[in-house]
Amino acid sequence: MKRLLAAILTATLFAVGVEGMEPVVRTDGVEYQILGDGRASCQLVDAPAMLMRQTVENNGKKIIVTVITKGSRRASCVVIPNGVEIIGEKCFMDCKSLNEVIFEDNSSLRQIDKMAFSYSGLESIRIPATVEFIGMGCFRYCKSLREVIFEGDSNLREIDERAFSESGLESIRIPATVEIIGEHCFGYCRSLNEVIFEANSHLEIIDASAFRETNLRSIQIPSGVEIIGESCFVNAKI
Questions:
Q1: 115 — alpha (psi -120 to 50), left (phi > 0) or beta?
Q2: Which of 112, 128, 130, 171 has the most CB atoms around it within 10 Å of its CB?
Q3: pLDDT tens digits, 157-184
Q4: Quick check: pTM over 0.90?
Q5: Distance in angstroms (rounded) separating the CA atoms of residues 169 and 153
């Protein structure tokens, strides 16, 4: 493992110009697309471990990697550079070998898009405080996912519909900043037996079927909640 990571770190970079396309910068197993405005996306990955660079060089200029658009189905561990702001739609979808995601300190991550980790082999994940939005179905069908930890002083505002639906979650602590829990968000999480809302919660909406068919026996709803959607707790143990 260490040898592989070292090889990725020391790999030689080179830029390829293709007419009508932005240049591509490659390392062993990792490919970057230069987006302009000093940014790059991690476009393709094919390595058992995925260690992306914080910056790549193109024409003598350092380019910051801010977007990840596609991950490797072979990767078992992913290290996300602290300059990354967006993990794109379906980025690690169906990566069944992926069981660990590590975010570097001082992460800039703002958004985890639709289905980004769905059907993956994740067992736990620690989500950086900078994340504001978790997209639709982001961790859906992650059957091995038991633990989700939100870093302190979280900026999370919305957990979109079906974000954790049909996952293996057993308990979760919702940051105080969350305002919306989307439709079917934790629906069919049949092992989910504990939901804790942080003090001074800003939660306003718990949408339809959000906790449908969970193992919840009790829950303390924050006083500021204005809407509890239809069938929110149907077939739960409450």
A1: left
A2: 112
A3: 999 999 999 999 999 999 999 999 999 9
A4: no
A5: 22
Which ranges of the chain does DSSP label H, i.e. alpha helix?
Answer: 2-10
166: domain CATH number is: 3.80.10.10
Q: List the beta bridge partners of residue 126.
A: 149
Does residue 96 form part of some domain?
no
Contacts 24+ apart (CB under 8 A), 135-139: 135/89, 135/111, 135/160, 135/163, 136/160, 136/161, 136/162, 136/163, 136/182, 137/161, 137/162, 137/163, 137/165, 138/112, 138/113, 138/114, 138/163, 138/164, 139/163, 139/164, 139/167
**Rounded CA separation 31/177 (Å):** 36
Instruction: Tell me the CB-side half-sphere exposure of residue 230, using CA atoms within 13 A.
Output: 0
- Structure token pair of residue 112: 């985890």
pLDDT band for position 71 (cuts 50, 70, 90): confident
Residue 161: inside a domain: yes
Which residue has tokens 């500021």?
A: 224
- Tell me the two tokens of residue 114: 């639709």
Q: Pairing mode, if any, of strands 39-45 and 61-68?
A: parallel
Domain count, the chain: 1
Does the residue 5 lie in any domain? Answer: no
Pairs from 18-25 (Cβ < 8 Å, separation ≥ 24): 23/58, 25/56, 25/57, 25/58, 25/63
Domain encompassing residue 227: 116-238
Q: Which two tokens stand for residue 92?
A: 């690690």
Closest CA to 64 of 92, 37, 43: 37
Q: Is residue 71 part of a domain?
A: no
